[in-house]
Design goal:
heterotrimer; A alpha/beta; B mainly alpha; C mainly alpha; A: alpha/beta; D-Maltodextrin-Binding Protein, domain 2; 2 domains; 19 helices; B: mainly alpha
């Protein structure tokens, strides 16, 4: 018995020696999106290569945000890697809460990361989170319905065209709705869409003195246009529809157009889940002739909380999961349409990926978003569909609730904007602006 | 009857429970009170010093405070009303002779075992969804326009979901109480020609007073802190922001721990007012 | 039950009660049915109720993605551990309140209940910080303790109401016989209180099993119970009703079955002194 134990111990030592590092167990918090679940399924490849084990904490987006924010703000140390977004990265980095990713290996080729993604995940020029996938937003539309309506989608449409087309495509009898847009309250839900949309109408969250701007004409135009469009061509219950709900509607063939994250393209064109897979077209997010388009810029990225004892192993994981090799690995297992998009330049230069119908539109959308100059007038903040200050999530969720209530017909656009103005001012005062 | 000896023994035996609960209450409470007097913003460097009553003033003057208090009372009151009324009716029904009573009781009791997160998810997606929910199908079947439950009848929806979860509890306690009712008394009343309604009003209901008090007390304790049902369904929009949820938004979404802690202190005060009020009634009804 | 009723009346009662019972149970039934559908059938319009190709694929997918047994085990440990710990602390307290009451007994009891009204979100930061200091974040022991505190007032109160129903003369008699306090509790009181204790255990096990705020916020990977398991299926990308249903069934089935089998005990004890 003792001998056997000793043998096991020796062989364990040998195998550890063979992988040339301590085998660690990493705890990784992530969101339950399709690409992350795929990554979870491929963890064995990482373990085989490095010897490190992974414990996944997969949570729904809202729960995830709450858990990781709570943990990092109190230095709870529950996670070795956290999945965060472009909003959190610069704020957390400014608080010295994240480990700088400035010593990644040569093979990893950090310069291959799309510049827009790299900038958005950096603070003071240093990368603090590695993009797992990146996205912008664009129009996904039903080519068959567009044809029936006798219209042709330009590559870069205006909001007016989108509205006319949406109304023409709507057929309530048969449960087809021209415009499926986000209405569910939340800074990452309706406010992501509406803030991006407001940019194209020339609106901004704050002027250069941090005064809330919901009393501006531009916001009024944005919200009025949105409410009118949704009233004429939106699905029932739009005020509780977020990304997931709209995705389900589109896959069931109930949407004419859907303006949302570019990553949705691979879901709506996947014949296994989507009933309309072979009649989906893509176009750039609309504009109002003022310059900026109504598209956003986002990345889900992996970051290491400062203070973890497993920093080295965590970096190994990040290098594995956001590498070119990982993309190849997914392509082998799931096909090129399902690789995590929007993170690396090399992916868009890969001939295998060139056949994917939404690849170029995704890249163009990402490249057309400018987090430093999101709208027409200058702003004191960074971010296209968000404002990279710690208070934003709280404020925007409450503003989103007012806008959502307006969409549900419970108040007018004017009332919603007035309330938004008041509560934003209150919160900014509370934060000491 | 009790001797000096057993009195001191009693005190010793009560001590662990009392001391532990006191600690459980006081330590976090003290920290909450301390935070509430500070500008405490974890995202902006954490503890930024004392600010006196600023957080308290800001919390009550915020445009969302009074609506939140009102929502809290409406939700708690609504659920209590529904569960008590339906609970009494169901208990009366289940007390009637019938075939398969045991199985019916199993069916009725079941929602109590379902975790709040699950029941909220199931109701939200599979029943109240305006396109794919059962209710939408039902409404369409009868040629009506489906209701957008969670946006246009949001508070009602929350009350419905929570009532579904707590109805079994009320029913069970009330049923036990009804079954303990002296059946001879009822029969005597029946012989005297008392109508069912007056039998209910003069004999059954007074007998149930104590049980109803208990149901109200226990449920209030749990209902004041409902969170999952709102977090999963509306996230506090469309007027469903209760005080608990407002505090959550201040502490976790806005990351303003000072402000949220002040809100927490208000919530404790509100809870204690409700508790005091309840205990007055319960105290009377619980007298031995 | 001296009341005699006509068969007709009984049939009517039966029909009516069964109708209501099935209506109340329907959401659970529908979840179970949906869990055996494909994602496409789950949202079929009009809905398919019974006649579809039953599949267990959803359960397979859920199991592949999450280690169900570990979540289940954590739930069992946390709910069970906190209940047992709570009973151990509450029995002596309830005993002394029931048999050696003082003027303050009821105040103490009501004060205990009032601690349950502390809004959890309000004290999340303090508790989280304390947990970090003690190094018990994401441990089962940490959650056992927290859940014990959450339910202790209810446990004490329930036990108190049962103990009070035990006639004092029996204890007097035992004391006459020279039984020590210990013996009195173990040999005389406890056997009489077993039904009451059983229903207290059941109720608190259920409450602890279903608690979703602390169990979610104080755990990561190691101690995460079924409430965390559900959080990874709540609104993923794409169609999810069937998988959500499967995960829901997996989360509630153990407690539902346990509740069904023990409902006699649960109901018998579930009065909180409401019945005199």
């Amino acid at each position: 018995m003792k001998l056997k134990n000793a043998l096991v111990a020796v062989s364990a030592l040998v195998s550890v020696g063979a992988t040339a590092a301590y085998a660690e167990t990493l705890t990784i918090a992530t969101v339950n999106n399709g690409d992350m679940i795929r990554m979870q399924g491929l963890t064995d490849d990482f373990t085989a290569k490095t010897g490190h084990e992974v414990e996944w904490v997969t949570l729904e987006e809202n729960v995830l945000r709450q858990r990781v924010t709570q943990d990092i703000a109190t230095k709870g140390g529950q996670f070795d890697i956290m999945t965060i977004g472009m909003y959190e990265a610069p704020i957390w980095a400014a608080n010295d809460w994240l480990v700088a990713l400035d010593d990644l290996s040569e093979d990893y080729d950090v310069d291959d990361i799309l510049p827009a993604m790299r900038d958005g995940l950096s603070y003071d020029g240093t990368l603090f989170a590695a993009p797992f996938y990146g996205e912008s937003s664009m129009i996904m539309y039903r080519t068959d319905l567009m044809e029936e309506a006798g219209l042709e989608m330009p590559e870069a449409p205006t909001w007016d065209f989108v509205k006319d087309a949406a109304i023409a495509m709507t057929d309530r009898e048969n449960e087809i709705y021209g415009a499926c847009l986000r209405g569910k309250a939340g800074w990452g839900e309706n406010m992501a869409f509406l803030t991006a949309m407001s940019n194209s109408f020339g609106a901004r969250w704050f002027d250069e003195e941090w005064n809330a701007q919901f009393d501006s004409d531009a916001w009024n135009q944005t919200l009025t246009f949105y409410l009118d469009l949704m009233e004429q061509a939106g699905p029932p219950g739009a005020s509780t529809n977020g990304f997931n709900e709209n995705l389900a509607l589109f896959q069931q063939g109930k949407c004419g157009m859907w303006i949302d994250a570019t990553v949705a393209a691979s879901f709506v064109t996947n014949p296994e889940d989507s009933t309309v897979a072979d009649s989906v077209g893509f176009a750039l997010a609309p504009d109002a002739g003022m310059g900026p388009r109504g598209n956003w810029l986002w990345a889900w990225a992996l970051a290491i909380p400062a203070g973890t004892e497993k920093e080295a192993a965590a970096k190994e994981f990040i290098e594995w999961s956001t590498s070119k090799d990982y993309i190849e690995l997914v392509a082998e297992n799931e096909g090129w349409a399902n690789v995590p998009p929007g993170a690396r330049t090399s992916l868009y230069e890969n001939p295998n990926y060139a056949d994917i119908p939404f690849a170029q539109m995704t890249l163009e959308s990402i490249n057309s978003a400018d987090p430093l100059n999101p709208t027409v007038d200058p702003v004191p903040y960074q971010g296209v569909q968000f404002v990279a200050i710690p208070e934003f999530a709280g404020i925007a969720t409450q503003v989103g609730q007012e806008f959502s209530a307006a969409l549900a017909g419970q108040q007018s656009a004017e009332d919603a904007l007035a309330k938004a103005q008041v509560l934003t001012t209150e919160e900014m005062e509370a934060a000491g602006y | 009857m009790a001797t000096q000896h057993s009195r001191s023994a009693a005190r010793i035996m009560m001590a662990p429970a009392v001391i532990l609960l006191l600690g459980w209450m006081l330590i976090p409470l003290t920290m909450t009170v301390v935070f509430s007097f500070k500008k405490y913003l974890p995202m902006r460097g954490g503890d930024l010093g004392w600010v006196g009553f600023e957080n308290y003033a800001r919390f009550v003057t915020s445009s969302s405070f009074w609506p939140a208090v009102a929502t809290t009372l409406i939700v708690v009151g609504g659920v209590l009303l529904i569960t008590v009324i339906l609970g009494v009716l169901l208990a009366l029904l289940l007390d009637q002779p019938m075939w398969g009573q045991g199985i019916v009781r199993l069916l009725v009791i079941s929602p109590f075992f379902v975790m709040p997160t699950v029941s909220a998810l199931v109701w939200k997606n599979m029943f109240m969804d305006p396109v794919n929910g059962i209710f939408a199908h039902l409404w369409k079947f009868f040629g009506a326009q489906p209701i957008e439950w969670l946006s246009n009848a949001s508070v009602t929806s929350i009350v419905m979901i929570v009532s579904w979860q707590w109805l079994p509890f009320a029913t069970l306690i009330l049923l036990t109480a009804i079954q303990s009712l002296d059946s001879e008394q009822l029969e005597a009343a029946e012989m005297d020609g008392a109508k069912a309604v007056s039998r209910f009003g003069y004999i059954i209901l007074p007998h149930l007073a104590r049980a109803i008090t208990i149901v109200v007390l226990i449920q209030t304790i749990f209902l004041l802190s409902i969170f999952a049902e709102i977090f999963v369904t509306t996230q506090g929009s469309f007027g469903t922001r209760t005080l608990t949820y407002l505090i959550y938004q201040r502490v976790l979404e806005s990351q303003n721990v000072g402000l949220g802690s002040a809100g927490g202190v208000y919530a404790i005060i509100l809870a204690n007012i409700v508790a005091l009020f309840l205990m007055r009634i319960v105290g009377k009804n619980l007298d031995t | 039950m001296g009341r005699s009723v006509t068969t007709q009346r009984k049939a009517f009662n039966t029909l009516f009660a069964w109708g209501i019972g099935l209506l109340i149970f329907f959401p659970i039934l529908w979840t179970i049915l949906t869990s055996f559908k494909t994602e496409a059938t789950a949202i079929a319009d009009p809905p398919v109720i019974f006649f579809f190709d039953w599949t267990v694929e959803n359960y397979v997918v859920v199991q592949e993605r999450s280690n169900y047994l570990r979540f289940l085990w954590n739930s069992v440990i946390i709910a069970g551990g906190s209940t047992v710990l709570g009973i151990i602390i509450a029995v002596p307290a309830a005993w002394s309140m029931a048999f050696v009451p003082s003027r303050r007994t009821k105040d103490i009891l009501l004060w205990m209940l009032s601690t349950k009204m502390l809004p959890a979100v309000g004290v999340l930061y303090p508790i989280y910080l304390i947990f970090i200091k003690l190094g018990i974040l994401d441990t089962r022991i940490g959650l056992v303790v927290v859940m014990m505190f959450i339910n202790l007032p209810i446990i004490v109160w329930m036990l108190y109401t049962y103990f009070r129903e035990i006639p004092g003369e029996i204890l007097e008699a035992a004391r006459m016989d020279g039984a020590s306090l210990r013996a009195e509790i173990i040999h005389v009181l406890t056997p009489m209180a077993i039904p009451g204790i059983a229903s207290t255990v059941l109720l608190n096990f259920i409450l602890a099993w279903n608690e979703a705020f602390w169990t979610l916020n104080l755990t990561a990977a190691k101690a995460a119970p079924l409430t965390a398991f559900i959080a990874s299926y709540s609104s993923p990308e794409g169609l999810f009703y069937a998988k959500l249903s499967a995960a829901s069934v997996m989360a509630i089935a153990p407690i539902l079955v346990m509740g069904w089998f023990s409902q006699k005990q649960l109901v018998r004890g579930l009065t909180f002194g409401a019945v005199k």
